[in-house]
Design brief:
CATH superfamily of the largest domain: 2,3-Dihydroxybiphenyl 1,2-Dioxygenase, domain 1
Strand order of the largest sheet: 2-3-6-1-7-9-8
Strand content: 35-45%
Low-confidence stretches: none
Largest sheet: 7 strands, mixed
Structural class: mainly beta
Mean pLDDT: 89
CATH topology of the largest domain: 2,3-Dihydroxybiphenyl 1,2-Dioxygenase, domain 1
Amino acid sequence: MRYLHTMVRVQDLQESLDFYCNKLGMLECNRIENEAGRFTLVYLAAPADVNVAQRTHSPLLELTYNWDSEEYTGGRNFGHLAFEVDDIYKKCQDLVEQGVEINRPPRDGYMAFIRSPDKISIELLQKDKPLEPAEPWKSMENIGTW
């Protein structure tokens, strides 16, 4: 398992980029504009976490900017922790066997969500490409929130 990123929602993207990049010195590594979903994702890394030769950067801070204004209360500005796993089905099965509830099953062979005892959302992402959708995961419904 490899730690990937922490996501936080931001109210003002330019102000946040000024803070994280210009003041803290983080570097923008990737940006995704999703017009249909009406959001922008900006991935930042600390300079020491960027390997220019290998074109890698990890762990990342994911800034999520929702284009439509929303007031974040009750911790909604903090999104989730993300981990890459070698086999998402095996990892989810191991978690189930240990009594962990899978809130968003890996129906797509790629992504699942669980929650910590303190209700912190944790995203599990399949390393490399998604696995073929498989039962019992592809038929499972979401449980609760994440």
